[in-house]
Amino acid sequence: MRSWDPMRNYPELDSLPDAEAKALIVATQKRVSRQPAMLAGLIGSGLAGAVPAIFLVRPGGFISGAIFGGIIGLAMVAFMVLVIKPRIREEFRRMGYPQR
Q1: For residue 42, which of 72, 8, 76, 68 has the smallest C-alpha distance?
Q2: Are the CB atoms for 71 and 53 separated by under 8 Å?
Q3: The model's pTM
Q4: I need a labelling partner for 13 at 20 to 30 A (CA). Which of 6, 77, 94, 97 fits?
């Protein structure tokens, strides 16, 4: 299934119908991301993004708040793409995908 969203782009599932592939992706993402180590890593990456943001962004105003939130969000998205997505791919391989 091809998508612009990096957390939904899994070529392993191209042989499945779209509805079935989406359901499998959502169920697998929930199972992987709710593991305590993954949840702690996601929170930790948010905190790791917050610490430099505190020193880089001057407090006060909407723009500084948006920049602060953007830095934290970028750190969390990077964690999802670099850590969680490979774990989801491992789960798909354990389940026997890709099936051609």
Answers
A1: 76
A2: yes
A3: 0.77
A4: 77
Compute the residue count for the chain. Answer: 100
Q: Is 58 in contact with 64 (CB distance < 8 Å)?
A: yes
60-to-26, 46, 57, 69 alpha-carbon distances in Å: 38, 20, 9, 13
Residue type at position 1: M
- Those residues with Cβ within 8 angstroms of residue 99's Cβ, 6 or more apart along the chain or in another chain: 15
The percent helix, strand, coil of the chain (3-state, each to 5) is 75, 0, 25
pLDDT in tens, 52-91: 888 888 878 888 888 888 999 999 999 998 999 999 999 9
**Residue 67: partners with Cβ closer than 8 Å, 6 or more residues away:** 53, 57
36-56 vs 62-79: helix crossing angle, rounded to 10:
150
Mapped onto helix, strand or coil, the DSSP state of residue 78 is helix
